[in-house]
Amino acid sequence: MSLYIGLMSGTSLDGVDGVLVDFWGGAARTMAAAYVPFPPALREELMALQAASPNELEREALAANTLAEYYAQCVAEVLAQTEMKPADVRAVGSHGQTIRHRPELGFTRQTGNHALLAELCGIDVVADFRSRDVAAGGQGAPLVPAFHQAMFSVPGKTRVVANIGGIANISVLRGDGKATGFDTGPGNVLMDKWIARHQGKAYDADGAWAASGTVIQPLLDAMLREPYFALPAPKSTGRDLFHGDWLDTQLAPFASAAPQDVQATLTQLTVLSLAQAIKEHAPRTEAVYICGGGAYNGVLMRNLAVELGVPVESTDALGVAPNRMEALAFAWLAFRFNERLAGNLPAVTGARGERVLGALYPR
Ligand SMILES: Nc1ncnc2c1ncn2[C@@H]1O[C@H](COP(=O)(O)OP(=O)(O)OP(=O)(O)O)[C@@H](O)[C@H]1O
Ligand SMILES: CC(=O)N[C@H]1[C@@H]2OC[C@@H](O2)[C@@H](O)[C@@H]1O[C@H](C)C(=O)O
Could you say which residues form the signal peptide (predicted)? Predict the structure, then answer.
């Protein structure tokens, strides 16, 4: 067996997903999965750390310590579902928590106390997967297209895998074995923000609130004029751009709009920005497979299928539950690190070449 654990806590800031996976023989066999939600205080602190604030150096370090405890709990929960012990696992691939992503300034920061995680779980930890790609002139994101290519590409067919997390990104898997991909823009981040503000809920379950509203076309048109959407790839984004102030600036001329109509419009912003990217970069794709929490939003899924005119399915159809995909990808990146194989696709990130990604914290 070639066992790895992948941990992913993404831009939604809701918690950490973990998987235990066996890469023996080149396949990826998931043996266990767990999700550990973050308590409200940690979520709020991680949200606050997305932008400049007082004493952030110390606060980041303390948040990193707390994260390590939740990550270690997630590792313990996946192991508890099997007969496996820490010594059976070759490494934990831990994404960490993105608190800044500024590749144009030469850095991206995923916080987490990786030394503490190694100490707490007694397994080698591989972390900081994005920095080397940025050092080589790349965006450092998205990284999952390399994993999607390795697992899901089919000769002679174009497939698209789209992740709709806080931010949305696509992987275009071409029939010739090559892959491209980039961040298309907001996934759930703006919808989550809006429903939290108006209803105190973490997200719009199944898009039901959006479905009760009507799209405000002038607002949608204005938001689609955001320059990011027209930028050529390679490109990546995050809460650094799509934050509350961005939303408030867009909404300022629409102060009297009904909240459910705004939610319908934000949902359609995600649909159209994704659909435009797919139509432009994969016009002949036969199917689009969705992972990330957006796969559980029926309104988003149906509207995307209408917009694209091709089947839109969850990645369950590829044998991977949508909420496990990214954790699986970071287990795979740890495996690539251990084998000293490249983890990035320069055609995706724009790096000068292939690089081994990650840094090791031995157990
Ligand atoms: N049942 C559901 N109905 C609607 N939306 C849902 C549902 N379940 C999850 N989501 C959405 O998915 C989000 C979480 O998605 P996910 O865990 O893929 O994000 P992430 O990994 O944190 O983000 P990223 O991929 O950008 O790093 C939630 O915040 C919510 O908006
Ligand atoms: C800097 C950062 O954390 N980026 C995330 C984020 O969440 C989705 C999208 O933006 C993607 O670029 C990336 O995550 C996935 C795992 C990736 O690197 O492919």
Answer: none
